[in-house]
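Any chance you'd type out a single protein's sequence alongside its tokenized fold?
>
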Amino acid sequence: MNGWTHSRETLQRVMDVTNKCRLEAERCVDHNLYRPGCVLIGAALEGVLLSTVMLAEPQLKRDNLWPKTSKDVLDWPLGELVGVAVRAGWIEANYRGEYLDLDEGDLGNAVDWVKWLRNLVHPGAFVRELDEGMDLGEQAFANAYRVLGTVYDELTGVLDRLAPELEAMRRERTVHTPVHTPDEKNVD
């Protein structure tokens, strides 16, 4: 398959799930459910990174930016996807690992914050990381949503640069691509 591990159909499923996570996060806010909304923003962040990495797979391998792992890309954790995006130069990350206000750091720092926020879905992490009585509110969601929007904007530029690769993927015939031409009638 010209350097791609997965088919267009699998990639489309990832993109559909990603969009669904973003839409569900927006619906959570309509009901003041900020913690689940933040978790879904984290899932959408993971999905947009995953789909971009999947699309860029041939280029990433060619540039030796693909991790030396035997794991399928669909099994990579969010941290691995962020690492690839940083190494590829898609996300600026001069302050990773530093605890800065979102306005003081860069996108890599903000993405790490959303990852941390998403991990608060785990009860142990929630209790360990937040003082008693604290919860995730509207401001946390608004900040996470803003970070997601910035990542979408940055990765749109990446996708524009990958346009030739995307065209090659579109033209590539997979086992799921119908053999008949569009003007043929399905005769049963």
